[in-house]
Specification:
Elements: H1 6-14, H2 29-40, H3 47-56, E1 68-69, H4 81-96, E2 100-105, E3 109-110, E4 115-118, H5 132-147, E5 153-157, H6 162-171, E6 182-186, E7 189-191, E8 193-194, E9 201-203, E10 206-207, E11 209-211, H7 217-224, H8 226-233, E12 237-242, H9 253-261, E13 266-272, E14 281-286, E15 289-293, H10 300-303, E16 316-318, E17 322-325, H11 326-332, E18 343-347, E19 351-352, E20 358-359, E21 366-370, E22 383-387, H12 390-393, H13 406-423, E23 439-441, H14 450-460, E24 470-472
Parallel strand pairs: 2-5, 2-12, 5-6, 13-22, 23-24
Antiparallel strand pairs: 1-14, 3-4, 7-11, 8-21, 9-10, 12-17, 13-16, 13-17, 14-15, 14-16, 18-21, 19-20
Helix pairs in contact: 4-9, 13-14
Length: 473
Amino acid sequence: MLKINGDLKERIAAAGQLHVLQYFDELDDAGQETLLSQLADIDWEALPELAEQYVLHRPETVIPEDLSPAEYYRLDDGDNFDLYSDADELGKELIASGKVCCLTVAGGQGTRLGFDAPKGTYPIGPVTDRSLFEYFAGSIRRLGKKYGVVIPWYIMTSPINRAATEKFFREKKFFGLAESDVFFFTQGTMPAFDLDGKLILSAKDSLALAPDGHGGTLLALRRSGALDKMVRDGSEYVSYFQVDNPLVDVISPRFAGLLALQKAEVGAIVLSKTGPFEKLGNFCVSNGRTQIIEYSDLPDVLAERRNDDGSLQFSAGSPAIHVFARSFIERLTAGNSLKLPWHRADKKIPFLNECGDTVTPDAPNGVKLESFIFDALPMAEKVVLLEGDRAKIFAPTKNISGVDSVESCRRMISERNASRLAAAGVIMPYNEDGVLDAVIEIDPALVADDEDAFEFAGEIGLCRILPGQKVVL
């Protein structure tokens, strides 16, 4: 039988949370050890203020009076031709010299897709069913070969999918990458509260814990030893993207090069919003600092405000594609801590009732807190925003069908492949409405960009895709 450290018990009591120990004496040694490990990770001194600020009171988003749209580098901007050319060249040099690594946020499950496994293992290939992870791995392999360099890949998992993710990579032999070049780490967790500000027990030996959000990525990099590895490897820039977007450039030379040229600490890709209420965060500026206001928090009057030419004033949306200077992450996480604001989410959270039985509620009964990585942007001394081509880099897989879905993602993969091959002179079967009448999948380990597609089409002598064909190249 284990004993509770007296100091820990006093801290729990001072936070008004002694109920978490009510079953402690009933547990076996393993159960007690599990619970004590969870309790030891909590900042008990900060807990009462968290409960007061985010649970007992619903926080309100305050929109600054000086809020204005953020400026960004446009996709096709002739005035910046020379700057973009310089950025392209510098970005390629950075990649070739091993100064850029990749970071994928992959802590979620495929629940919304009806898929009970890590989301990165979801079969998204329009013909072959290759997984999301395989798309990124193939692109990393291709860039490594193209630039003659090893590109380290950091993958942030969560406690619920770490083991399954690693097992998947082992089964797939790391998709041809060296195991030593893939670094898995786990994001932190936060305990859930009931609506009275009390921590919820999900079992007699466990708190109800939830991942602490993608904002936890930066601190998890330090605590996992990933930052130390980046230093050893000479990685100075971190290309960040989410696991549900197989169209993303795992590293964009222009994006990385522009960040370095401008001596910025953070870069963010901008998409021109399709409408005032598209579900993308809005890039804004307040007090001289770049920030993102969530689509649900931006007042309608601002979301719908237009320029004289009819375009949206707040038109810059965030697809969550970034490049971070490693030095910025080191600075923010110095002292092994990082203070980002929390965001409240009301959830249905299984809990123990007064009899010690687990109950699954049918309505929200508690609060989970998570942090968002974009809240680090105002902490940067300089942020660079670069517009991206939506059709080429953004196809999130969030739903089974409809907008941002498996359906739309597979179609966009095929359409981008067709566009690249058409630019290389291959005749494509578009119907009279301009819709592609074929399904085309290209191995990402062979083609990472338009330049690759041109060379690839020439090498295999591809001249035409026929209507109705399903093609794997």
